Amino acid sequence: MSRIHTTPTPTGLQLALADGSASLRLVPRLGLTLPRYHFRLGRVVHAAAELDALLADQGTAWSAYAQRYDAKTDLTSAQQQRMIDIISFANQAPTEEFNAHIGDYLDLDNFGAFTAAMVWMSNMDSVLYTGQNYYIYLRPDNRKLMFIPWDQDESWGQVVGSQDMRNNLSIFAPFVRANPVLQRLFAVEAFRKVYLLKLAELTLGPGEPGRIAKQVDELGALLRPAIADESKEALAQFDDSVAGRPVRHTVGIGLNEFLPIKSFVAARQPSVLTQLTAK
Q1: What pTM was computed for the model?
Q2: What is the average pLDDT across 219-230?
Q3: Partners of residue 134 on adjacent β-strands
């Protein structure tokens, strides 16, 4: 059964892009035709022992990173070493030094926006949990890392934990498991400032339930004829998803029942707003 029945990826990418986490200049037409020096994090087997934390330290040899970062161009030794240096600093720098200088290694404006989108959508199939589904761009001008969203089909609070947990995922500690570098970043004021601002912008703008519902209805009308050609069962599930009625995964990292986009957003948006205003 097609994944598009329950998880229209374009809407997830639209929300992620709307907060500035990726530039349309870098991602023309959402085709992910990226400039030089970009990396895609390789897929991780969906088992607890294989889950990969953000910028996990694998030592000082590039060979330990080559497969997981799947570089799309031939890297110079200087580019390889820069990646190793970034990862080493993110994991090993003393707290005071990390807080003061992590912005020399990561584009914090970009990463704050990127993280805000993942947290807002409670996307556990991301840096928040599985450690995958993004591109990394090593900027040639300042040699900082930028993060670009990719493969958002498990977003909108679909997988990992209970539906209530995903609806109300903490915006201040969205950690379902140990994620040392991400947890360190949440203590950095420069990151938190951008992150919370982008959360507020998403909550009051692109993530407004009525706006999302309108997009889902528009996509639903466009896609419904194609789904109808597949089977009556597929069409029934698709109609449930568009209407916001609970549906069940048939493939993916969880086979649980979950709320489709409309219903999830109707619960998530006020939860994020309450957390923002309570702080």
Answers
A1: 0.81
A2: 94
A3: 149
